[in-house]
């Protein structure tokens, strides 16, 4: 048995232990463990470690740590009832494990330091969300700040990383770089020991079709877990007011304006593009006159699905390319509504907006901070826009021009004439029609019928003088309108091929080559003096004109094309195929002597002058009124 000596040290009795006590027994460790005051325990630890060292035992601190670990295991094994959370809240009780979780916050008993507070406010997980598209799990947290309970969805990349978890401070959570590691451990343990009782729910970060589930947000039991910047837009897609009131005002707008009928149908058509295998396309309302009802028409289109207030569902062009791309991917199968094209223009009046990038339906592939690749965003919807000018400029590629239905609006032919009244009504009554239409599209029989209607319209439109992509967009709008007319506007006439065809571009007008040819002919006419080698030309020479052929010095042709934004090689290739330039061998140019110097020129055949045609009535009137100019 150990030999014990007792001596007085500062009015306290201190037990002196032998080497055998330290190696074979647990009395010294039990004595130190029994001290609950953190400060006194640290003092005692230093003293006992020093006493042990004096008799040659150097491992006192490590042995005490092992003793503490053993006591922890014993407490866990012998615990009859879990340590539950004690919160005044609407949330379920959870097993708090080794933590004390109550209305005062989160505390942890440390065998070295005693009871320590790691968070001064209560915060607990109450459900796990698994994203349907990505499979990523997120945690829905509840926390109390200033007496009010809040909820926030947090990625596990944030919650279980000490560097990232401090982001929660932006939401009002009591966390710092000092407590970050302890909070990570807290959340990990709480989720682990409550895994069987924490509800696992499906979540989605976008709108539109969800395979096997339905159409978001009209799916019960699915939670939105996407970017919080889009939370407001997600919440905007809901029903409000009276459905019949909306039907009445929408029917009135359709009857008064073909443009309003097209724009409204294009809003519904967004939900048809993916199931019918279409591509995104634009419908753009533009006009320099104010009071034409362009923005109100956009609000009417938005009211199909949700709150039409600017900034709720409707966005503006005051955004970056990445912002537009992410918004399109979030909307997915709902229309993307953008107001005021002029907000995208730079100081030189040039629009920074790229139609082709959104019309592709696929975003840019981007890397992540950790070295991986983000999921490439995709979308299949319509993009409805407004502005004071066309959305594509004259030199835009055929792909961009092809994907836009441009509709000019004027004060004499307003889209919506009584804008104040219409906007006031749709701001209070919205969201009903889109919900009903989307749910119908989840029925196979309805989709099969829609596909047949679409194919018939597409075939008919392709027989005219328009491109396939323009025909596809128009057929999608016609199909949507034919479906919604009996559903919501019973008794009204559906949109016809003739009505929409007036806004479709011809094959010739879509061609970038044709537009390039028209431009360079205008450019030659505007600079005709530069093509004269006589005395009247005292300035720079651009070439010469001989027998209806303009010989344009190659460098001047290149400058003219680039300044207007045309692809020089593409235009030259088109001109050669159409036999509108005279070439030499494989080249697209030929030599011509100008001012005595032989230079390479683009030999452009100028269009023939068509004789003016006058009817017999015009000629008779001219003779009778003695108007010689007409003759």
From TrEMBL:
Occurrences of domain DUF927 (ranges): 113-378
UniProt feature coiled coil, ranges: none
Listed transmembrane segments: none
Top-rank taxon: Bacteria
Domain called Cch helix turn helix: residue spans: 511-608
Protein name, as recorded: DUF927 domain-containing protein
Species name: Ruminococcus albus SY3
